[in-house]
Each structure stands twice: as C-alpha cells, then as structure tokens.
C-alpha cells in the first residue's frame, strides 16, 4: 500500500491519449476496489535529526550518506525519502494487524540502528518545531510541486519539507451495504477522520513558537487553499461518482515533459485537459500521475488512505492510531459503535469537504478540548479496545491504546498539549534565571 512519489517513466500502453469518458471509467475502476476487508497497511513518516540534540539541523551531506547506507539494507517495507529529507516506511499489505505491526517494527529497529551509527535519530512529530522548510530532494516532480503550491503562500513548502504523518490504509469494503460496505466506510472515514485529527494532534509549533493550533499540519493543508488539491468531495452520495467528479474537476499540477521543464498550467482541470487536448493530449500515465498530486485527508487508491494523523511521539507511538483505525474499520461491532459515536458530528461539517469545514477546523485547532470531539473519541477508543482481542492484538498493543485513552482522550488532551506544556516550563525556567541575574 505504498504511496511513494516517484517520477517513473511512462509505459508504452500508457501513452495513448484519453477521452473524458475513458478517464471516468478508469477512475471508477481503480479507486474503489471492493471486497471483504482482508489487508491493512501503514506508512510512517519521521523527521531525521541529531540523536542527542534534535533541535540542531542535519546537513544534506550527512542525510545523503545515511540514506545511501539505508538503501543497501534489506527491509520488508519500502523506504522512500520525502522532499525535505523526511524518512518514510510503507508497509507491504498485511493480512492482520500484528503482521503489519511486527513487519514495520522490525524495519524501524534496523533503520534506527543504521542512523544511530552516524549520530542520527527519528523524531515523531507532525511538524518540525525547530527548523524552517528546506528542500532536500531536487527532482522535476518536487520543483513543479513547489512552484505550484507557492501560488497560495508558504504552506506548501512546510507541508513538503517539515511535516510528518502516520497514514493508515484500509480496504475499501464490501460492494453491498452494511457496516463494512464501501459507502458506509467512506462516510465513516470523513467523520472519524476529524476525531483522529483531534486525538492524535501533535504539531503545535513552528519556529519554536505556538501557532494556536494543536495540529498545525492540518492547518497547513487548509492554507494551501485549493480544495481540489488538498481537500476532497463532500462525503455524502455515492463515493465513486463523487470521487470521479473530483478527479476530473481538480486542477492539473503540471504537464510533464521528458526533454525539458515541466509546464505549470494555471486553472486547468483534468476535465478541461481531456477536452482541449492542449498543450498535448493527456494519457493514462498523466492520469496516474494526476491522482498522486491530489492530497485529500481520505484518498481512495483502490483502498482508503487515512492521511490525517500527525506523526506520533515515542518509538512505538505510531502503533496506537494504526490499531485504533484497524479496529474501527475492520471489526463490524466496532464499526457500528464508531458510526453511532461520530454520526452527531455530521451537522458540523455543513456538508463541506474535509478538511475545509468547521468540524475539521475545530479538531485541528482545539484537539480534544472540544467537548463533542472528546465524547466521540472516548466512545471510539472504548470500541477499539473491545475489538482488538478479536483482531489478535497482543496485550502490549492493547496496553498502548489504553494508555493513550487514559493519558489523553479522557482528559481532553492530545500529544500536542505535552509539547506546549514543555515549552511553557522551559519559558518559566528561562524567565526565572533572568530574574535571579537581575
């Protein structure tokens, strides 16, 4: 279930020009592949910093040397590097929660060992609290992405270079209606997604200063400003129809050229491209690429990618959102409980797409200090804990979920609050020392 971003070449069969009708058929066929939920995946992103002093920047030369070593190490999870040098591991599709956890945990142990030999370590936080955006990768894709996103401000550079997440991938669900039906899962993902934003918010700082948001990472997605790029369609209605319209009406980020700079059209949707066929007719490869340039919080790629969760603190913090999401999406009893818990939140979306609606805005700004989100989160975590034994979770995994529930959720807190508390303590100590000297 990897979502690595590469520039790969076009296959010969992908060079044929597409019509609008062909695009519709392809999107409907490839983005929702229904059937019994059987597989699970996770993509974990990390900031890479000095092991002992993470506030110190790492030079590009040291990052490149460390990544060169890692590329020679056998891993079961594909390793990719994000534009700012963030490290990402993408699990292969797993047939159980514990298979997914065990695979990624073993690979992370290997990665940490290699990095530690050069004095480097992994930091789990949704946005780098210390450093400004600095692009590590210089590739045509990221040159075009940066130029495109710069049109709406600096949020795109922060998203590309200083953010990190835990992305959970679940199967699309059954074609038929029911607790695990694909329409119900699509709607659940967009309501539960706001609860996951709030429960796991972990990015309250930029430049060592509070932004006023528990999840600044979500704020950045909203500030990109183009709903067709960083948002999704309203979750009501038939998912395939809604997503197909969204893909066709989303702006094209760039037109790739093999022999020269990539073109950056202004306000050209993929639908308009298929009709105008300029600057050249779009191909299947262009459609495949276009799909990778859309960043909604819930993205259908045959399965559903839940992209709204901030990277988590601690070596194993990523396991908690994975376990909670797996339980609430793949256990029928937990799915029904989650649906009942989040259904009252629907009124706060105003039927606007996520993350550009009041519910998601409140989740990112206030976290679980929002009473309604806190109530829903408590119910969802309780349902997940009941379901985890049925999914074969070990006592250690259940203990980790229970610890997050009691440390954060029932108290209306999230990991971002710990970062803010530490910042306040540091400020108080600094001011105290100044008072003594005076």
Structural commentary:
The protein is of the alpha+beta class and 438 residues long. Helices cover 46% and strands 10% of the residues. It is built from 17 helices and nine strands. The chain has helices at 20-30, 60-71, 97-116, 140-149, 155-162, 182-199, 216-223, 227-230, 239-249, 270-276, 284-292, 319-330, 332-342, 358-366, 371-387, 395-407, 415-437, and strands at residues 40-50, 79-81, 87-90, 120-123, 165-171, 205-206, 209-210, 298-300, 303-310. Strands 1, 2, 3, 4, 5, 8 and 9 form a seven-stranded antiparallel beta sheet that branches. A two-stranded antiparallel sheet has the order 6-7. Strand 8 and strand 9 form a beta hairpin. The chain is globular and about 65 Å long. The protein starts with 19 loop residues before the first helix and ends with a helix. Residues 1-13 and 434-438 have low confidence and may be disordered.
Structure characteristics:
438 residues; alpha+beta; 7-stranded antiparallel β-sheet; 17 helices; 10% strand
Total helical segments:
17
End-to-end Cα distance, whole Å, is 59 Å
Low-confidence stretches: 1-13, 434-438
Radius of gyration: 21 Å
Percentage of residues in DSSP E strands: 5-15%
Largest sheet: 7 strands, antiparallel
Order of helices and strands: HEHEEHEHHEHEEHHHHHEEHHHHHH
What is the subunit arrangement here?
Answer: single chain
Q: Percent helix among the residues?
A: 40-55%
Task: Name the overall outline.
Answer: globular
Q: Which class do the helix and strand fractions yield?
A: alpha+beta
Mean pLDDT: 92
Number of strands: 9
